Amino acid sequence: MQIVWTQEALEKLAEIEEYISKDSPKRAINFINYLIEQAETLINHPEIGRVVPEIGNENIRELIAKRYRIIYRLSGKRVEILTVFEGHRLLHIEELGIN
């Protein structure tokens, strides 16, 4: 499996890093690395995440990493990371940029 980060997901990582950096730049870098490492576990276990309840599509899943949701899509031999956000809110399909 290959991990591919969408532009949306990369922008969300940058926003998360910027927000945490206000208090601690080192902690921000460590947390972003943690999120990336969690996503990389999908290389060997792509179906480990649950189906996203708001969507109900078997190919769109999520990993919960601390208080964040890593939303991804299974697409052949690729895992596409679609977005990352705080887990207290619901996902809106428009955020994913998919049909």
What is the CATH class designation? Answer: Alpha Beta
Structural class estimated from helices and strands = alpha+beta
Number of helices: 2
Helix content: 25-40%
The first-to-last residue Cα distance is 23 Å
Secondary structure topology:
Blueprint: E1 2-5, H1 7-21, H2 25-40, E2 50-51, E3 60-65, E4 68-75, E5 78-86
Parallel strand pairs: 1-5
Antiparallel strand pairs: 2-3, 3-4, 4-5
Helix pairs in contact: 1-2
Written account of the structure:
The protein has 99 residues and is an alpha+beta fold. The chain starts with a strand and ends in a 13-residue tail after the last strand. It has two helices and five strands. The mean pLDDT is 91. The longest helix has 16 residues, at 25-40. It has one domain (2-86): 2-Layer Sandwich (YaeB-like fold), CATH 3.30.2310. The protein is globular and about 40 Å long. Helix 1 (7-21) packs antiparallel against helix 2 (25-40). The chain has helices spanning 7-21, 25-40, and strands at 2-5, 50-51, 60-65, 68-75, 78-86. It has a five-stranded mixed beta sheet. A hairpin with an 8-residue loop joins strand 2 and strand 3 (60-65). It is 31% helix and 29% strand.
Kindly list the characteristics that best describe this protein.
5 strands; globular; alpha+beta; 5-stranded mixed sheet; 2 helices; 99 residues; YaeB-like fold
